[in-house]
Amino acid sequence: MTSERPTPIAGNIHVGDVIESHDSEKSSALEIPDAYPPQTTKPIDMPPDGGYGWVCVASVFVINFHTWGLNSSYGVFLSHYLTFDTYPGATSLEYAFVGGLSISTALLTSPISTIVCRRYGTQVALSIGIVFETAGLLGASWATRIWQLFLSQGVSFGVGMGFLFIASVGVIPQWFSKKRSFANSIGTSGSGIGGLAYSLAVNRIIQTLGLDWAFRILAIVSCVMNVLATIVIRDRNKAVEAIQNAFHLPLLKQVEFLLLVGWGIFSELGYVVLLFSLVNYARSVGLTATQGSVVGAMLNLGQGIGRPFIGYFSDAAGRINIAGGCTFLAGLFCLLIWIFAKSYGVLIFFALTGGAVAGTFWTVIGPVGAEVVGVALLPSALSMTWVILVLPTSFSEPIGLQLRRSSGNIYLDAQLFAGFMYLGGATCVLFLRAWKIAEIERQAAVSREQREQEIRDNDAVKNDVPSVRRQMSRTASVKTATKGLWSWQRV
């Protein structure tokens, strides 16, 4: 039996070729899914809520201890300058500017520090801060004129504190979610504990070794401890895809961000007056220099003890709720306790209770900022906030000293100023809370719209947030915002 060749079809093409071609087409068709794999959604980063994050909390604690804590002792320096006229020809207003200048310079460096963090990493920014802070303290030890003190204890120390603070402030929120406020409050409590230690130490060192050696000892101690903290701290910028731009200008168009900044402005106008004036106020009512330094130390102790509690309850009762409530209490304590505190015991009581809530802004600005703008935009939002706070922190203490009277209760106007500034900050948080509640209700409306769309079409689930927002009438939005002013929710 002879084998038959396949029947020719159209020239050189055979039936077998057609079958093979058809099979290859089917094979190719089957291989299409491999050539075009299905797109996968990148998993959402979930902070570990612990682990190495607690090492970073300890590092931030140490950095705050030896930056803001050290700066908190300026009240002792100020009292010494005013009492002994340390720098010939300097006025009380110029002395007041030194303390405010260190804070405002620290905040003013935030754009540069943010850029350095983005390009070279957190450790590099921290190292730059250590160099400037150490140089500032050493320079102050040789200062003989007020302008030299401006450049050393004011500008150079402020630049160093700014780099250290800005580079570390966003680290803890990256490591925690449910425990974010509590962990952040432990880190920020370092400034209170540091203020306690440094206020007592500075007064003692000045009395025994003199002003020059006080600066030199502070330079050595702070340098060593900040170096150790820098070695072990780690950020999660890549994991959270942090947008580390110095400025994100679209935030200025968002009402919620402006309310956040307003809270900071009013809070700092009150906080700086309280922080730097309390020691000298104690001297003005007849207490000794040692008793005044103890009062200042108790204010910082109150901050060190109060901040972890503020953070803990922020996670439990709502970060914005606690921020507004504690800011209101700070104003209330200034108006109802500080004004009438004339004795050593009452001043100690005020320092502890007022100190517990005085620095609420610094305790929860990171977690509250994350609630408002999100973790990714947080570095940029904080950078812009620090720059805006330069003016209020620069002029707060000079305003406080200018408000002093010539006789009687010389600090009464300054005390009223501090109290009402805190109340203004609490008002901003109240409206921020109303915005957050309205935002939660809008998100709930979007979720309901999505569920309804899923029911109508199981094959396509649309997530058109703008269209849902357009469906909400302006009247409904106003009603929702007004409702948020008085309704209780955990926000």
UniProtKB/TrEMBL annotation:
Entry's transmembrane regions: 52-75, 95-117, 124-143, 155-175, 182-201, 213-234, 255-278, 284-301, 322-341, 347-365, 372-395, 415-435
Protein name: MFS transporter-like protein
Upper lineage: Eukaryota, Fungi, Dikarya, Ascomycota, Pezizomycotina
One term of GO molecular function: transmembrane transporter activity
Record GO cellular component, one term: membrane
Membrane topology reported for the UniProt record: Multi-pass membrane protein
Family of this protein: Belongs to the major facilitator superfamily. Monocarboxylate porter (TC 2.A.1.13) family.
SUPFAM superfamilies per UniProt: MFS general substrate transporter
Keywords annotated in UniProt: Membrane, Transmembrane, Transmembrane helix
Database matches in InterPro entries: MFS, MFS_trans_sf, Proton-linked_MCT
Subcellular location: Membrane
